[in-house]
Amino acid sequence: MERPDLTGQSNTLKLWNKYRVSNIPSLIFIDAATGKVVCRNGLLVIRDDPEGLEFPWGPKPFSEVVAGPLLRNNGQSVDSASLEGSHVGVYFSAHWCPPCRSLTRVLVESYRKIKEAGQKFEIVFVSADRSEDSFKQYFSEMPWLAVPYSDEARRSRLNRLYGIQGIPTLIVLDPKGDVITRQGRVEVLNDIECREFPWHPKPVLELTDSNAVQLNEGPCLVLFVDSEDDGESEAAKQLIQPIAEKIIAKYKAKDEEAPLLFFVAGVDDMTDSLRDYTNLPEAAPLLTILDMSARAKYVMDVEEITPEIVEAFVSDFLADKLKPEPI
């Protein structure tokens, strides 16, 4: 369902952004004492545990949630303990979903390249197929492991653990089971040769066709530059990177997600389409914060972008001092 226009409701908008809500209905449980998220997928919780036997539904380690037999597509069963010491991709996908099938074809090649390079890496497929026959047909294309389709409770618990709101989603874990990135889909498509595996997040990204989907996840600072020259884009990234790193570190220390993603956008058809869609001026450089799902934008149109201007712009946004314009 489309997210409502919240440009005139600042407190509500802040809650949507804080908890990265992208569709409704959405039910999120938080710890009232700390404000930290206990569970992002409360609708699944009340469906799976209507009696509240697992209350307060706090997060559990991946190793505990995934525990049990896993399958290979030849029918062989493997214990989940075999994942210990490996990076793991948790792949939420389904055969009925065309973007999922497209990603799976790329992911199969990525998986083979990573394994051939000697990396300890495994993928666990968590199906959202609508029947076991569809699951079997789809899984036959995959060289990795899967949670048995019949184990609906375990599939649901993994969805709950990571607050899955859409597919395909690929979450990459380190050998301890901690999340490296929730953007495995974007990373796989951007790094076909897998040179940057296991894809630790970068503070600032260059906006591309494949990562533009992240613009829908919450507020994004986008610095538009008027050049196809990689050198200018790199200089723009270096300009905002210290500010991005500071924001990310501040919220990581509180065990919270950063309230902004950071991008640099050059000159290409996708960037032109984004400017047209958001009705941005043609000026460059142009400093913006775009909240696509709330249909809100904040624009700083000045002749020269300096670190001081970026930092003040970000600080004012986080302090709710900027007035949003509608997209």
UniProtKB/TrEMBL annotation:
InterPro entries: Thioredoxin-like_fold (IPR012336), Thioredoxin-like_sf (IPR036249), Thioredoxin_domain (IPR013766), TryX_NRX_thioredoxin_dom (IPR045870). GO terms for biological process: negative regulation of protein ubiquitination; negative regulation of Wnt signaling pathway. Residues 56-213 form the Thioredoxin domain. GO terms for molecular function: thioredoxin-disulfide reductase (NADPH) activity. GO terms for cellular component: nucleus. It catalyses: [protein]-dithiol + NAD(+) = [protein]-disulfide + NADH + H(+); [protein]-dithiol + NADP(+) = [protein]-disulfide + NADPH + H(+). Its EC number is 1.8.1.8. Belongs to the nucleoredoxin family. This is Nucleoredoxin. It comes from Alligator sinensis.
